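Hi everyone,

Forwarding the result from last night's run.
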Amino acid sequence: MSWKEKRKTKYFSDCETGAVRKQWKGHVRVALVYPNVYALGMSNLGFQTVYKLLNGLESVLCERAFLPENDTSPLQTIESSRQLADFDIIAFSVSFENDFVNILSILERAGLPPKAIDRGIPHPLVMAGGVACFINPEPVSEFIDCFFIGEAEGVIERFFSLYEPGTLKKDLLLKIARNLPGIYVPAFYETSYNKDGTLASFSPIVPNMPEKIQRVYVKDISALQTCSSIISRDTAFDRTFLIEVSRGCPHGCRFCSAGYIYRPPRFSTVFCLEKCIDKGTAVTDKLGFVGAAVSDLPGIVELCGIAQEKEAKISFSSLRADALSVELVSALKKSGVKTATIAPDGGSQRIRKVINKGITEEQILAAAEKIIEGGIPNIKLYFMTGLPTETIDDVEEIVILCRKIKKSFLSASRTKKRIGQITVSINPFVPKPFTPFQWFPMEGLTSLKEKMAHIKEGLRKEANIRTDFEPPRRSYVQALISRGDRRISGILSRANANKGNWAKTLKASTLDPAFYVYREKLFDELLPWDFIDHGINKSFLIKEYKKALLLKESLPCPTNSCNKCGVCGEIVDNVSSLQQKHI
């Protein structure tokens, strides 16, 4: 290894605090891998949480590795600069489907056979978890020995109580899969397909395997106190201590998988979050509140006050226009926040009813005024295009709404004698598993490009408005992977061989990508991800699909349990039940 390569690895360890280093001997050795670069991986609270959980086990040593930033950078762990092949287990933490292809690249660069069937002793066991895996793991099932389906806190400790180094891989996987919920071993299941290419069956091929994999679920997140374990300056948040405020979201937007797979929505208590704040302010003055519904937290204003009493700067991962209060804006202003983000998602009220967004134009405009009047100079707006039933009139409403927001923006800015900028981010809609829109096709690339061009032209002459567009081709690849079955593994292999050149990969594919991306799925069709049980009744998702077409909105999830979607009452607290069994 060259001096420059060694220096790059050393730089990562030098720029962080909180890393755990254990003696190599006497431990089960786990390489926790984020299949993208260091800066992105260390900005991911889920990745950091798993690192903390693993090193919290006395018998386990866990070190981190990331996708090298270029072809010459070494692939080795941060803590001890060891090769991945030296570990007992390689565990991938995957949040985004587009990172699936990086798994193959990492295994290849580690000198390991990419396909699970070609690995045995002395190769490490290759595992994967994270939200992308428990939405739909099938596209990478050929490469992974076993998946964690659900929330890591509910299964990691028991997994390592059953793990025995040196055991034949099949025997080890049989024991784990038969004794733990949430463990999916693809080699123990087979699939068959109809003549039209749809999935005909998914079934176990070894005795005593469940027909469905039930996700692992943590009922009370307050006791977890999920927060950063490592602080680093080389991340998207620059020495920010991240604190999980909530899991899931009560609003039920019909395009959002997080709003369904994390049901029921759960909030931590201010009392427990205050303890996290104490931990954070001991090492940095920057706190980041993380969750899909941070502004819905009961006591969020009180929490901001606690943070500011400790002279900490705070930021939020999300803000809803209808929950944006003067107090929240004031807290952000005091923390030096220069840009506040809100997500109307749809431009017209009609399309916001289709997606069940639950906010009105009046609330969006009022939120923009509060942001500017509160002293935050810039606004970022998120919209989607290509949503189900969307017309060019709905697209034009994005332009109209942005102009209205600008008008309010300029009016409020003049009183501050400072005019900031509005950034409009436009993203193609990708239909995701476990949502009411999972049956819809993605809109064609030509149509999406035309709609984006319409928005760009409509806002081109508007001063103080900047537009950003997610490339439709990138969203197309995301749709292909997220809606794919086991046959997609071949496309991923070719994409890896082509160094991520998707245009070349898709052109040469013998499998028609349009089958997965553009085909409308049938309600009675067996979907590639149907073997995962998130507790949601399919009939509920179908009902929401039909309500979308009728422009009917649904109420948010109540804080107490109900029987509408099937989750409450169907799913037990896996953490409690596992702890009882362990005891």
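The first strand starts at residue 16 and ends at 17.

Cheers,
N.
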